[in-house]
Every structure is written in structure tokens, then in C-alpha cells.
């Protein structure tokens, strides 16, 4: 085919030197680069200004940041290992047999299956990404992502222990969280677009690599990739924890509307793992049970840490659309269940 007159002439050497889109993506900083760069900066600051970390506000920030990351890291590792195991040892045909072919039916089945993963949202994100890679319908994978951190036995038992005088709190949390997962899965089935999902490519193993090599490569990639975004979420959560005065929260506990909105937003910014958030909610005695249920339902499905992890796993375009809708559905679901229960 002849070149059109408007097409600029390029030599073979120039064409060979042109950067491909993949090359340009590889030249951008990765989450691993961010993690290493942040660690280097902290060490340099610690060496140059050792008294800086003695400031009470900075000490509180550092304590919260470390607590958020350490609390989430074990579950993130569990999720990464499960994700790598799915990639290496589970054939795609398994999911095709286990889930109904129709996405509308696969969504509630996937939502209920979230009860078998005793982890938090940090674990569910890499597992959901691996499910999509293995050919599972995105709607079903997203339903699993939202339900796993909210309806698993560890979370429900923790909720029952935190609210010994309100046994219906665990039941209400289970029902509202499952509704959120199923509704969001159905919404994705109806309105979601495949181009919104941008799963990062994994480094391919060497030719003839066995399952153990595939497992190791996938786990290493996902841990480094998700770890950087976990740090971003931890930084945001720590900053907002220090910046929001507790006295301001207590002063608005008497307003039914404001208490719901404030605890919903607080669940997003505190980024507490779902295994521990029930005890935080139980301590907020100045707020109503309904507003505390909103806190428990919103936190595991949308918080700053989870948004960062979703951005790293599925892409920024996905997170910017998925998180706000999930927030609205979670608040409405919690209010509806609270109206029925109480």
C-alpha cells in the first residue's frame, strides 16, 4: 500500500527508535518505584532532621499510618497468595462450571461465595482481579470483591462481639452488605463497559515455566504492585485521621441526617479493616445504631485505601466511576435494612 502524501516520511531507523505504547507505560513510575522512593525519603528525613518525628502531631500521624498498613498487610498478603494460586493452579474451566453462565444469576452466587474468604478488602481486590483474568464475568468478580470483606465469618463474629447488646447488628450488616454486592454487580452488568477495566499485565514466566514458577511470579508482581497503592491509601487515611477533630464528630451525633452522612464519610477516610471496624463503631456511642450500621456497610466497600488498591488493580477510570456509585448504594442499602430491622 502506498503512503499518502500527508503521511510524513520516516526512515526505518527512525521507526525503530519510536517508542511504543508499552515502552511509554514501562517508562512511567510504578507503585514499586513510589514505595521505594517513599522509603528513601523517610530515611533521609530521619537522618537530616531527627527531632522532626518528636512533634506530637507527626507522631500521631506516623502511628496511624503504620497501624493502617500493618493491619491491612497480612490480609493483603493472603489475597495476593490466593490470587497467585488461582492463576497458577485453578483452570479457567473451573469458574465456568461453578458460576451460572448468565451474569444476572452469577452475581448473587459470587456475592454469597464471598463468605468463604476470611479477609478484608485488601485481600479481595487482588483475588477479584485474578478472577477477571481467569475469564470470570467482571460483574460476578466485583460482587465477590464487595461481599468478601463484609460477610465473611470473621467479620460477622467480630461485629457480634462488639455489639453484645445488639445481636441484630451482625444480621443487618450481613444483609445490607450482600445487597450492596449484588446491586453493584447487576449495575455493572447493565451499564459497565469493558474498556473501563485496565488490569496491569504481569511479567510472564520463562518458557516452559511450571505452576510453582507461575505462582511465584504472579505473587511477587501483585505484592509489589498492590503494596505501593496500599501505602498511598495509608498516607491518606492517616492525614485525614489527624485532621478531623473528634469533638466535632460528637457535636453532630444528635442530628439523624448529619450523623449518617458524617459516619459514611468517616468510614471512607478512616480506612479501617473490616475485622476491626465494628469495635470502632461500637465506641461511637453518641451516634445512632442506624448511622453506625452505615459506617459498617460503607467501610468495607469503599474507603481511600480500597480506592487506591482498585485504581492499581483495575485502573483509574474504573475506580473513579465505581467508588462513588458504590458509596451511594451502600448508604441507601444500610438505611433500608436499618428501617426494616429497627
Automatic annotation (TrEMBL):
Q: Which domain of life is it from?
A: Bacteria
Residue span of region Disordered:
1-27
An example of a Pfam family matching this protein is ArsP_1
Residues spanning the membrane: 34-49, 61-91, 103-127, 139-163, 170-191, 223-244, 256-272, 318-341
User: Which keywords appear in this protein's UniProt record, sorted alphabetically?
Assistant: Cell membrane, Membrane, Transmembrane, Transmembrane helix
How the protein sits in the membrane?
A: Multi-pass membrane protein
Q: Name one GO cellular component term.
A: plasma membrane
Subcellular location(s): the record lists: Cell membrane
Protein family per UniProt: Belongs to the UPF0718 family.
**Full protein name:** Permease
Organism equals Geodermatophilus pulveris
